[in-house]
Amino acid sequence: MTPHKHQKEIIAWANGAEIEFFNIPSKSWAESKDPVWSINNRYRIKPETKIIPFDFLDAENILGKTVKHKEGLHCVAVLIECNLTSVFIGNTEENYDILLQDYTFLDGSPCGKVSE
What we know:
Helix content: 10-25%
Strand order of the largest sheet: 8-7-6-5-9
Shape: elongated
Largest sheet: 5 strands, antiparallel
Structural class: alpha+beta
Strand content: 25-35%
Number of domains: 2
């Protein structure tokens, strides 16, 4: 017996993975909340978004932004200075890895960027 064309995606979806289909008119991948598994469509498991630390090239976009510590400390601080290896959060110097690991922006989004 020949397995279904989308067997891998069907199993992943049954296990909770998000599925996307290729939208021909827009020539892009789109979310499929309830896939029909047509053999004429292209499906894929939605790729995971990988967040990596900011670096000095991001200085223009992050300076002046307010962040908070993930531990829930009752304090927020502004990113006031960047250099090649670190950023100043208020008067505390942290490297970019620690900024991503230990801090978020006020809206809860990570202090990092999507890997390309």
